[in-house]
Amino acid sequence: MIHSLRVRLLMWLLVPLTVFIGLSSYASYLSAADTANRLQDRALQASADAIAGQIGWADGRLTVQVPPSALSSFDSPYTDHVYYNVVDDRGRILAGNPGFDQHLMTGASNPVFYVSQFQAQRVRVVQTSRTMFDSGQARKVTVTVGQTLIGNHELVRTLRMPALLREVVMLVLAVALVVVGLTVELRPLLRVKDEVAGRDPMDLVPVTVSDLPQELRPIVEAINQCIRRLNEYVRQQKCFIADAAHQIRTPLAVLGAQLQFAARMDDATRLGEILGSMETSTQALTNLANKLLLLSQAEAAAANSSGAAQPVADLVPVVTAALEDMVVLAQRKGIDLGAELAADSVTVGVNEWMMAAVVSNLVDNAIRYTPEHGQVTVALAREAGCAILAVSDNGPGIPAEARPKVFDRFYRNALPNQEGSGLGLAIVKEIVLAAQGQVGLSAGIGGRGVTLTVRLPLAP
Question: What burial class does residue 27 get, using C-beta atoms within 10 Å of its C-beta: 0-12 exposed, 13-18 middle, 19+ buried?
Fold first, then answer.
């Protein structure tokens, strides 16, 4: 496989151009050979006509006197040999070379031209016939003149060489122009390569395209589009790290203060209370770290979802298991946790642990923000090729101005004393988007609270 653009473009040019030059050269050869044959045939015919004009009757016999002028037209610097003979219809040689006995071309046109072999040499031959009349009798006489092809071949070469030289020069010039043209026209692209390769890893400024040819601009536009995505990704990561550091710093500061206070505490009862608070802070910090890790995994799944084969999860057992884990949390607040599940299986192309995270975060979010003795209902159904998962509550709901932000990381629409990390719905959004699904908000139970609805395409 040829990887060089210059070589591949040269091949695209050279292969058809070489074929064309070969065909053109062959056509030039045929034309030159035809011209040389015509010129030689004219000389042969003139000589044969001159010899035939000297045939006459003498004393009732055919005689011929070949003048030197009949063969003078064949003088050339190529030492060609000329042969001729004059034969009557009885096979008697009237004049010429006795050994140059060519087969009589009966029935052919008069004169006839052909190539023959004589004395191990190829000769161009003309044969013409003439009928002689005398005293009521008619005799047919055949004049044959031949010449070797040395001068013919030299004339073909002389006629052909200028055209062949022009074609070779054209081929060399085309190759040189392609090489030079590619070198010049690829310089802007090489400058782009040098600019991108020499950048600092954090320099994500788009590449300039002002001096690029129109055909190369889509490549740079694709690079710039990738740079813009990297910029957005870096911005999100910086924001995420800053928010995560802020969220982790607060429980760590509280935990450090509790440790200092416990170190100075002598009362065992108060020390036990402080240790209990420290355990609560540690658990909150652990939950936050777990959710950060889960969010990172969801983002990675979203980035790798295109073109990858996804495992299939049945939502019915996933939702059932998640509800069983949330029963204790609901019972502590006296919340009525119910479920309306489809009778048969509902399969989607998502990992089971991801769907478990979606259900757990939605139900946990609903239980945390629903007042005591409230109601939370989980519904699962199939509709128009989609799996519909809806978690509804009758809590205080979400104000209209806060709804666009509820899926942002670390955003919390909660009272100061309510627990939570602000990552639950962000995790849900990332997983649902990775599965090519949708998540939306609507009114909750009895027009109160909120319903979070997840739509996922059913697995084949």
Answer: exposed
The set of residues, in sequence order, having a beta carbon less than 8 Å from that of 281 and lying 6+ positions away, is 251, 254, 255, 258
Is the pLDDT reported for residue 65 higher than 90? no
Locate 77 and state its tokens. Answer: 């610097």
Close Cβ partners of 423 (under 8 Å, ≥ 6 residues apart)? 288, 291, 292, 294, 295, 409, 410
């096979």: which residue's tokens?
A: 91
The pLDDT tens digits of the residues spanning 147-175 come to 999 999 999 999 988 888 888 898 888 88
CATH classification (class only), 308-457: alpha beta
Of 3.40.50, 3.30.450, 3.30.70, 1.20.1740, which CATH number belongs to 5-157?
A: 3.30.450
